[in-house]
Specification:
This protein has a single domain, classed as Hotdog Thioesterase (Thiol Ester Dehydrase, Chain A, Roll), CATH 3.10.129. Strand 14 and strand 15 form a beta hairpin. 40% of the residues are buried. The chain has 436 residues and is an alpha+beta fold. It has a ten-stranded antiparallel beta sheet, sandwiched between helices. The chain starts with a helix and ends with a helix.
Length: 436
């Protein structure tokens, strides 16, 4: 027994730790109301932090793109492209070695910390990416975060309550050369947990079952997955209306989620002492689930149905940036080793629950030159096995090699972005000085 090892303790030392505070509540009680409500003070605090570049105080997972971290990531999204995993193959390409798909940068940082909506449930709902350089194995990473605008809307997901659409930039930088590798303007939807759970917009849908014939079609779709690879797709050979994909992912399982986390990391899943120390610093972090009477990290909505139901979703569901990574896979398969994904936009409007299958596809809608870059715009989207749209149509841009004029010319970051990066200072310093 613990008392045999610990002996007497000063209980007042731990009275405010959330694990101790929770046990003071009677069984089935909800957490204190203030832990899950958006207040005017929260919104004012967030407004004060807008448009102030800062260097995050911690990373989510990887601070270096290595052959192993890249392989773990592409394993987690089911991407078999040898350019990302086979050193011998990659050495024969123009890169001279393994590179990472653009969304690998998620593994360094997902979103800006310090938006100020403590205790409010949030989920990634899409983003607008731009990339400027390939990410080579051996690249050390750093980042700059900038909190941008927020929209407040009345939404069905939150019942009678508001939803808060949070925008911010994460700018990813080569830590040694200081070159900007890429950036994402992310979209995060926030809703008060009690309001979201009460809305029940996503409750009641039965889990998909698959017949023998269904599984044959799923396996055949995987078998037919097209990967352009070392056969260059030249700009001159592309026509408006050309199809892109399809690419299949799923049926979604908890296994898929865990393998994704093995490669992508997690902002919130921590273990043992590290977890409980984090909770002490963030006492409104835990989510209460009446169905189980338990309190734990909100990220468990991705594995445990009871946690998902607490916010109004029938079953555990995927990570939003996991789905965005699948969209990146669609484009890198299509463009081949010599192409470059410049811009990618995704808009996730429906939950992808356990048992769902996702079909991603697109079509070429524009072909043009921009300076010495040979560009193709592709409209892409995703649907599930019953035809529901889970990612609305958005346009992304691929730069292709030209048969007549040579290889891809990489794009340059916006000068304003460069200036913001120069102004960035460590978050802890800005907080200490009351500047953010």
């Amino acid at each position: 027994m613990l008392e045999d090892y610990i002996g007497e303790v000063d209980e007042t030392k731990w009275v405010n730790h959330p694990r101790v505070r929770i046990k003071k509540e009677s069984a089935g009680d909800k957490p204190p109301q203030e832990s899950g409500k958006v207040t005017p003070e929260m919104l004012e605090r967030r407004k004060f932090r807008m448009n102030k570049p800062f260097i995050p105080s911690a990373i989510y997972f990887n601070n270096e793109a290595t052959a192993d971290t890249i392989r773990h990531y592409v394993d987690g999204i089911g991407d078999t492209n040898p350019l990302f995993r086979d050193a011998e193959y990659a050495e024969r390409t123009k890169y001279g070695g393994i590179i990472a798909p653009g969304t690998f940068l998620f593994t360094h940082q997902w979103t800006a910390t310090g938006s100020g909506l403590t205790g409010i449930h949030g989920w990634y709902s899409g983003g607008d990416w731009q990339w400027y350089k390939p990410i080579h194995a051996g690249t050390k990473l750093t980042s700059v975060a900038i909190i941008r605008d927020m929209e407040i809307k009345e939404g069905r997901m939150a019942g009678r309550g508001n939803i808060y659409i949070d925008y911010g930039d994460i700018i990813y930088i080569n830590a040694e050369t200081q070159e900007i590798l890429g950036k994402e303007l992310y979209h995060i939807v926030w809703a008060e947990r009690s309001a979201a759970g009460g809305a029940k917009k996503n409750r009641g849908r039965p889990k998909q079952t698959y017949s023998k014939q269904d599984w044959i079609r799923i396996l055949e779709a995987y078998e037919r997955e097209e990967r352009r690879g070392d056969n260059p797709r030249y700009w001159e050979d592309v026509n408006i209306g050309d199809s892109v994909g399809p690419l299949i992912k799923g049926p979604l399982s908890v296994r898929d989620e865990l393998v994704f986390l093995m490669g992508a990391g997690s902002p919130f899943l921590k273990a043992h002492k590290i977890e409980f120390n984090y909770e002490a610093r963030h006492p409104n972090f835990l989510e209460h689930v009446e169905e189980t009477g338990e309190d734990d990290v909100p990220e468990l909505v991705h594995y445990l149905d009871q946690f998902a139901r607490a916010i109004g979703v029938e079953r555990a569901y995927d990570y939003g940036n996991q789905r965005m990574s699948w969209m990146c896979n669609l484009f890198t398969n299509w463009m081949g080793d010599d192409g470059f994904l410049w811009k990618m936009s995704g808009d996730e409007r429906a939950f992808n629950m356990m048992g769902d299958t996702t079909i991603l596809e697109g079509k070429v809608v524009k072909k043009y030159t921009e300076g010495n870059r040979y560009c193709v715009d592709i409209e892409s989207w995703a649907k599930n096995q019953v035809g529901d749209t889970t990612m609305h149509s958005n346009v992304s841009t691929v730069i292709l090699p030209s048969r007549e004029n040579g290889p891809v010319v990489y794009p340059d970051p916006d000068p304003q972005l460069l200036e913001e990066v120069k102004k960035a200072r460590p978050l802890n310093e800005l907080r200490a000085e009351g500047l953010i």
